[in-house]
TrEMBL record:
InterPro entries: NADH_UbQ_OxRdtase_su1/FPO, NADH_UbQ_OxRdtase_su1_CS. The keyword Nucleotide-binding does not apply. The gene is ndhA. Pfam families: NADHdh. NCBIfam families: PRK06076.1-2 (NF004741). This is NAD(P)H-quinone oxidoreductase subunit 1, chloroplastic. The chain crosses the membrane at residues 26-50, 97-116, 122-146, 255-277, 297-322. Its EC number is 7.1.1.-. It is a multi-pass membrane protein. It comes from Anethum graveolens (Dill).
Length: 363
């Protein structure tokens, strides 16, 4: 039997092409997964650098300037240092809860990015209940903090975990009522539909003008959910040493800070989506038909513009949150709970009642 060498080469080249095609499909499948992770990581590093620079400017200090140009690599250097530091475990603590707690706090917040639209049709998962999925997922994070405090076998840590749970419950309800008001106005709970509902009337269609009371309540509640000053009671160093993270070291200690800044970023993105029109560029007294023509002609350029607009609005809220942290003093625990239950909850309920009444009258 004589085998033609050209046929063998053709068969080998065919199988080689098939294997390359499979590898290409796998890589192309992983690109949508790793691209948001890379973007979120860069966003967290930028927020850390911005907070240090803004706080230094407010307090008339220099700030980071040696690690890289303008100190932009300082956050990366701190993360690398924590990665290689020794990971200590409490001798009489629950090591399983101690190890799982930081992971739950980070993973639950990372899942919230699934429903955030960064541009037109640029969203990982457009669920019909997107905003409520974010609330449900983000409410898991305090459970991880409570596990961390309990597993540390430390009274200060356990009190910090209890404070985190109490604070989350207190401010989750007003925040949910504000989101429900936005859903009623937009006739949808999808984040994409909420943004598109605001784009019908341009700049004046933003929910910021239609829901000013809800915007203020959402702003305060989101800062409390992120445990930012003046609401950082779970880790108040003057009272609880460092709260639920007292016994942590190394990368597990760093995960708490990553979770904090991830939560701040996702809250800022949701403020942009719910109240500031998302990716739409709708400035008063400025006609921008040129951008819309480009958007129709080139989807890539239009997507880049949408991402840029979303991030610009997001970092505007981040500036407000960072400035608030370095301006206002910390509340007491009783003041924190009184603000949530006695003020924000009745105000958010009244705002929801007014929204429902206006929707019924408009029918």
């Amino acid at each position: 039997m004589i085998i033609d060498t050209t046929e063998v080469q053709a068969i080998n080249s065919f199988f080689r092409l098939e294997s390359l095609k499979e590898v290409y499909e796998i890589i192309w499948m992983l690109v949508p997964i790793f691209t948001p992770v890379l973007g979120i990581t860069i966003g967290v590093l930028v927020i850390v650098w911005l907070e240090r620079e803004i706080s230094a400017g407010i307090q008339q200090r220099i700030g980071p300037e040696y690690a890289g140009p303008l100190g932009i690599l300082q956050a990366l250097a701190d993360g690398t240092k924590l990665l290689f530091k020794e990971n200590l475990l409490p001798s009489r603590g629950d090591t399983r809860l101690f190890s799982i707690g930081p992971s739950i706090a980070v993973i639950s917040i990372l899942l919230s990015y699934l429903v955030i639209p960064f541009g037109y049709r640029l969203v990982l998962a457009d669920f019909s209940i997107g905003v409520f999925l974010w609330i449900a997922i983000s409410s898991i994070a305090p459970a991880g903090l409570l596990m961390s405090g309990y597993g540390s076998n430390n009274k200060y840590s356990f009190l910090g975990g209890l404070r985190a749970a109490a604070q989350s419950i207190s401010y989750e309800i007003p925040l949910t009522l504000c989101v429900l008001s936005i859903s009623l106005l937009s006739n949808s709970s999808s984040t994409v539909d909420i943004v598109e509902a605001q784009s019908k009337y341009g700049f004046w269609g933003w929910n910021l003008w239609r829901q000013p009371i809800g915007f203020i309540v959402f702003l305060i509640s989101s800062l409390a959910e992120c445990e930012r000053l003046p609401f950082d009671l779970p880790e108040a160093e003057e009272e609880l040493v460092a709260g639920y993270q007292t016994e942590y070291s190394g990368i597990k200690f760093g995960l708490f800070y990553v979770a904090s800044y991830l939560n701040l970023l996702v809250s800022s993105l949701f403020v942009t989506v719910l109240y500031l029109g998302g990716w739409n560029l709708s400035l008063p007294y400025i006609a921008v038909p040129f951008f819309f023509e480009i958007n129709k002609a080139s989807r890539v350029f239009g997507t880049i513009i949408g991402i840029f607009i979303t991030l610009a609005k997001t970092f505007l809220f981040l500036f407000i949150a960072i400035t608030t942290r370095w301006t206002l003093p910390r509340l007491r625990m009783d003041q924190l709970l009184n603000l949530g239950w006695k003020f924000l909850l009745p105000i958010s309920l009244g705002n929801l009642l007014l929204t429902t009444s206006s929707q019924l009258l408009s029918l």
